[in-house]
Every structure is written in structure tokens, then in C-alpha cells.
Amino acid sequence: MQLLLLVWRQYRWPFIGVMALSLVSAALGIGLIAFINVRLIEMVDTSLTVLPEFLGLLLLLMAVTLGSQLALTALGHHFVYRLRSEFIKRILDTQVERIEQLGSASLLAGLTSDVRAITIAFVRLPELVQGIILTFGSAAYLAWLSSKMLAVTTLWIVVTIWGGYLLVARVYKHMAVLRETEDKLYNDYQTVLEGRKELTLNRERAEHLFNNLYIPDAREYRHHIIRADTFHLSAVNWSNIMMLGAIGLVFWMANSLGWADTNVAATYSLTLLFLRTPLLSAVGALPTLLSAQVAFNKLNKFALAPYRAEFPRPQRFPEWQRLEMRNVTFRYQDNNFAVGPINLTLQRGELLFLIGGNGSGKSTLAMLLTGLYQPLSGEILLDGRPMSAKKPEDYRQLFSAVFTDVWLFEQLLGAQGEQADPQLVATWLARLKMSDKLELKDGRILNLKLSKGQKKRVALLLALAEERDIILLDEWAADQDPHFRREFYQVLLPLMQEMGKTIFAISHDDHYFVHADRLLEMRNGQLTELTGDERVAASRDAVARTA
């Protein structure tokens, strides 16, 4: 299994140590059986030392077995911790476009269901390892007692294991389908939670979602989980009954065929009884390992960025003066919409407004400008120097942004990830009229239950606290009341310019276009600058312009 091979590569020596401890545990278990056979069955030792010796072996076996299981479990949890952490880091390093293609539902399923399945597998792994090691060790001891009886017993156990394998293979098949069904269910859950207001208003839509989307997915999940559990339980019961049958077979070979005496048969039966629980546990643990392999394969299919432990420190350009997009093009993989070629020059300290209809490419341009999307062709230059696609963080560190789908972070961070400037935060809290709305402690926002317009103000505060040179604002004023909207255009934007900020704002507030240094327009994926009469016309009626 790929999963176990990965554990071997990452934790080779700890794994070898755990296996050695498991071997010692198996040897002690077999030694205890041999002690019972020699001292209590064959010799019938009646000395007073036999009980303390037996109890001492029993306690030692318990301690070593528990130690080996705990060591393997701890190793598994270390691996899962590393796997989860690397997965999160890979998400952080993956291009935004790829994350959008995957969707949050499938990624959340990976972080929850898949990682949980791998965790459960490693919790059960000691049972499988213990069962395998004890089986081989006990087989060696039984061969010493009677090779003929071992041959027949081995054949019986092989049939038992083969039957269990066939049943477990069916478990694996249904587990693979279950994992795909979980993605559908997570998407249904997300729709119910995020669309709760619309679904409450429109009960017909809620009924359609419940009956035509959720119920079929839930029934599919129920069908496959029942089938998987059925084959799993069948495998466990098959193994249980066949192991009991092996004990009867041993006494028949000893008494009817005369292959061994009663003492050997009793020792054989005792050994098989000793093996019965580890073997059943091993059969029971196998489906969890198969499920973990399915989960591991699913995580690999996300095709995220390769893991890098470090967060690279971007090169800074404090004295830059001109940013240029030259013949930049972009096309979405899942549809035919394309943007470009785009040619745009930003001078440091400028205030630019961008207008355009829905689907014109405004947001795509914003993603390209900030470096969140990588151009299909063309290049981005800073003071005439091409920015390397291999080190996108060098370019991205120029930007802070407030997007329409704003997400608020609790911690205020300043330049280069340091603590935000308290004076800057206090000043802009007052300017944004949020001083009495937010409670701050050690640079952390304690209350984020705000209206949409207030959340946009907090997002702008977070962006300004980062002290980056360029601020991108995507329809920031759309959720503000008319009074504060006027305050934003006539007071706040000029104050940002006085701070030396370059501002790129997507806006449809035509009454305030006069405040922009330049007015740009996106139409059908093409960018143009509006000047003269065109700018005057757009400033009178931007809605008509973008219709």
C-alpha cells in the first residue's frame, strides 16, 4: 500500500523500532504458551515458584504488548499530523485558480473525512501488525510440535484468510464509491447552510433540494455503507467460526488420526485460541486500512502544489514607480471566456477606477493584476523588470485587497507580518466610524458579527494595516449607506493617496468618477481607458455605458 510505503520512507527507524518491539511481544506470547505447555500440561509442576513465574511472564507480556501498540499508535498520529499539516500548507501554496476549480466542498471533505479515515486506520494498525507477527511466530512453534498437524491447520487458515480477503475486497469496492458520494453530500450540506435564507423564503426550492438532490445522495451513501458493513461483518464472522472449527479439526487429527497426543492437541488448541483474537482484530482492521488507502488516493488526486516547509520571504521593491501589464492574456479552463491581450500601466500614487458590465472580465483583471491568476501569455513588469512566475510572492507583496466575497481575519497584521501599528489602526478605526463597533485586544478583533457594510470597513482596515503600496478595492462602496459612500470617495480615498497608496478600485458609482486620476473600462474581456467625451459620458451614466 502506498500509504504504508510513505510511512516507511518518512519514519523508517521509528517504524523498525516499533516492529522490533512487536516481535518481542510475539515472542513473549509464544513463550507464555510454551511455559503453560511444559510446566502446566506436560510436567504438571506443583512447585510454589510456578505461579509467580507465570504471573511475571503475564505482566511482562502485557507491558511489552501495550508498549508496542502505543508506540505504533503514536507513530501513526505523528504521521497523520504531518500529513494534515502538509496538506494545509499545499493548499496555501496552490494557485487560487486551481483551488477554485476543486471547490471548497471537496477540499473540506479531504481535510475532514479523508484525514479522519487515515487517522482511524493508524489507530487500528497495531491490531493488524500484532496479528501478522503472532501468526508467523505461532506457526513456527506449532511446526515444532507437529508438522503434519501444522500443514492441515495452515491449509484451513489459508482458506479462512482467502475467504475473508474476498469479502474484504468487496468492502474496498464500496468504500471507494462511498468517498465519491461524500463529496456530493458535502456539497449538499454547503448548499443548505449557505443558502438558508433563500431556502427559507422559497419552500418549493427547499423541497426540490431535499427530495431531488440530498435524498438521492443520502440513499446512495446508505446503500454503499450498508453493503460495506455487511461484507465486513461477514468477513469477521467467517473468520471467527473458521477459527473455532480449526480447534475441532486439531482434536480430530490428534484423536482419530493419532498424529499427536492429547497434550499436543491441547497446546495446539490453546495456541489457536490465543491467535483467534489477534487474527479477528487483524481482519477487522483491514477494511479501515483499505478505506485509508482510498482516502490517501483521493488526497493525491487534488494535484495541489508540492509541499515546501518554508514560507518564502519576498523581495521588496520600496522605490518602485511604474507597474506594467504587457500583452497579458488569460483563459478559463472550464469555459471559453478569455481576457486580453491587456496592456496597462500604473504609476505609483495613482487612483484608478475600473467599470464594466457583469461578465466583462473586471474580477479576472483584478486577479491578474494582483498575481492571484497567472497569465496564459504576456508579462508583468515592475519598473521595466519582468516579474518571475517562479517567485510570485515578490510581486504579490505589493498588494492588499478587499474583494467582494470578503473574508475577515481576527488578527491585525502590519508590514512584513509584524504587529500592526496601533496609531494607524486607531486613526482608521475612527475614520471608518468603527471605533464603537469593534473591540480590540493585543491586535486581535474580538467581535466580527457585523453587517455586510461594516465587514467591508473592517476588511479595509485590515488591508491598510498591512502597509502595502497598492490597494485593490472590488465594489467596496456597494454595501455602504449613501452618506458613508460619499465619505469614502471624497475623504477616505484622498487620505489613502496622501499616505502614498496606489488605488485600483472597481466601481459603478458614476457620480464620483471625477475623483479618479484615470477611468478604465472592461468590455468583453478587453481593457480600454476612457478619456475626453467618453469619460464625461460614463461619469453621467455608468449603468447605460455598461449595458
From TrEMBL:
The chain crosses the membrane at residues 12-36, 56-80, 125-144, 150-169, 231-253, 273-296. It comes from the Bacteria. The keyword Membrane applies. It is a multi-pass membrane protein. It is found in: Cell membrane. The lineage of its organism: Bacteria, Pseudomonadati, Pseudomonadota, Gammaproteobacteria, Enterobacterales. Residues 323-546 form the ABC transporter domain. One of its GO terms (molecular function) is ABC-type transporter activity. This is Multidrug ABC transporter permease/ATP-binding protein. Keywords: ATP-binding, Membrane, Nucleotide-binding, Transmembrane, Transmembrane helix, Transport. Residues 15-291 form the ABC transmembrane type-1 domain. The keyword Nucleotide-binding applies. It comes from Pseudenterobacter timonensis. NCBIfam families: cyc_pep_trnsptr, PRK10522.1. GO terms for biological process: peptide transport. GO terms for cellular component: ATP-binding cassette (ABC) transporter complex. PANTHER family: ABC TRANSPORTER ATP-BINDING_PERMEASE PROTEIN YOJI (PTHR43553:SF11), HEAVY METAL TRANSPORTER (PTHR43553).
